[in-house]
Amino acid sequence: MRTRQLRRRSGFTLIEVLMVAAILALLAAFAVPALTGAGLKAKINIVKATIGRNGSIASGLKRFNFEVGRLPDTDEGLEALYEIPSSIDEDAGLWDGPYMETPLEQLRDPWNNEFQYRSPGEFNEKSYDLWSPGPDAKDGTDDDIVNWVKK
Which of 3, 35, 97, 129 is in Cβ range 3.0-4.6 Å of 118 for a Cys bridge? Predict the structure, then answer.
């Protein structure tokens, strides 16, 4: 008789399995949104670091400015950090680029948007404006990530 009782207790009941599954589903319901928010925040921080004063793009622009004596204008854009602009005489020896290690094709934000550049800047009038359209990929919306102080 004892062997029968042991056999009956050797597995889990359907109720026990369902309760464990419900607990796991409940934990996942709380964990997934928290992890998703952390991912978005990390991407935003990557963009801020890239376009910030000491970011990789800013470093390239500083080197360009130091050697050429000016920033690339809006029409030349960030491409001027990779290829000599037509407005610069190659024989003058001013341009000594490329000024960025990352290939131009990879110079994108985490949402695969191109960084936007304007010089002279509208918000940084004595410098340049640099920004990402942000997660929604629409320029001029509240989620844009910019190198100026939003008012």
Answer: 129
